[in-house]
Every structure is written in structure tokens, then in C-alpha cells.
Amino acid sequence: MSNRFKSKKEIVYNQLRQEILEGVHPPGTRLVIDEQANRLGVSQIPIREAVHQLEADGFVTIAQHVGATVTDLDANFIYEVFALLESMEVICSRTACRTITDDQLKELAAMIDEMDATVGDPNVWSKQNKAMHLFLCDVAETVLVRKMMLKVFDHWDRLRFHYLQNVLGHRIREAQAEHKQILTALQERDVDKVERIVRLHNQGALQSYIKYLQSQGHLDAG
């Protein structure tokens, strides 16, 4: 949807959200309403509305006498993010395995092939990866799960930009191989196999990132 069809609140929300995800506003940064209004060239009303939505989504904390600040980000959050992603991806993939059409399988295969070409660009690949997993939600018609997954992916992006910029590339080739295994299981209409691979896919990624975070002192080893 182009900006001319969006409300000022939506435009402001999307911009502030993206800036928070990419670390333009680091954790703990105060978001002063009038300053943001002046910067973005809008009144204080859409800023306040957007900030309250960001609070509801977990990106902003509003405290009395302090105002709005960007929510702190702890590396331990990765456990919660991956637990949620695994659960939701299992729901979508099991359902999609029962309903996916031959044309949708071809579309999914094409998406994975396109991702092969971007393994050297983690930011582009990550966007394609998100689109691929959301596509399975669309195939499964799990509307509520899709909405929830979008929010969890946003929190994953924030973790990735803040802590994992230098490690994602090492995991991408393994992830691509696992995506192809998921595709094969979907083609075979093997629901239990799909779930097994999806769980291994998420757990393998999590363990890879945990090792890196431990090596950098962001997580306790043990």
C-alpha cells in the first residue's frame, strides 16, 4: 500500500518501527513527542498514536515522569523469539502440507531458488526468508498466526541488527539446505516429516546464534 493511502499514524508508526529495528534509536533512547513531530513534519497526535502502538508491540516502554523510551534489548530474548517462531512455523507448515497445491509448490520452489542467489547478502536473504515463511502461513490460511509471526519476525530483526550482524551469513547456507528439505517434505505430503525438519531448522539456527552470543559475552555459557 502506498503512503498516500495510509494514515499519518501508519506512516509515522512504520518509520519509527523500522528505525527501532535497525538501531537508529538504540535501546533506552527517549522518544520525545515534540522532537519526533518536528523531525517527521507532523503534529504530535500521530506521534502519540504511533508510540502507543509501538508500546503495545513491545518496542517502546512508557513510564510516568520519563515518557517513551525504546525498550531494552537483552540477548536472552532470543530463546523466547525462537520458541515462538518454531511453534508458529510448525502450525503453518503442518496445515500447509495438507492444503498446498502444485502451483503453490512451484511458487515456493521458485522463492527458495531466488534465495540461493542472495546467500551472500544477509539483509536481502533475511527479507526473502521472512516472505517464504509467511507464504506458508498464507497457504495454510492461518490468518491469526500470520499476524503474530509478523510481530515476532520484527523482534527477531531487532535482535539480528543489534547482536548478530556478523554471524548470520555463516548460518544461511545451512538454512537454505533445510528449506529445500522442507520443500521436499511438502511435495511428499508428509506432515510429520515437515514438522520434524521445521523443528530442526529452528533449533539449529538457535544453537548457532547461542554459540556466537556466548563467544561475544552476551550470553552465559553453560
Note down, in words, how this protein is organized:
The chain is mainly alpha-helical and 222 residues long. The protein has two domains: 3-70, Arc Repressor Mutant, subunit A (Orthogonal Bundle); 77-215, Four Helix Bundle (Hemerythrin (Met), subunit A). It has helices spanning 8-21, 33-40, 44-56, 77-99, 102-116, 122-140, 143-163, 168-187, 191-215; strands at residues 60-63, 67-70. The protein has a two-stranded antiparallel sheet with strand order 1-2. Strand 1 and strand 2 form a beta hairpin. Helix 2 (33-40) crosses helix 3, helix 4 packs across helix 6 and helix 5 runs antiparallel to helix 8. The model has no long low-confidence stretch (mean pLDDT 93).
Short description:
This protein is mostly helical. It is 71% helix and 4% strand. The chain has helices at 8-21, 33-40, 44-56, 77-99, 102-116, 122-140, 143-163, 168-187, 191-215, and strands at 60-63, 67-70.
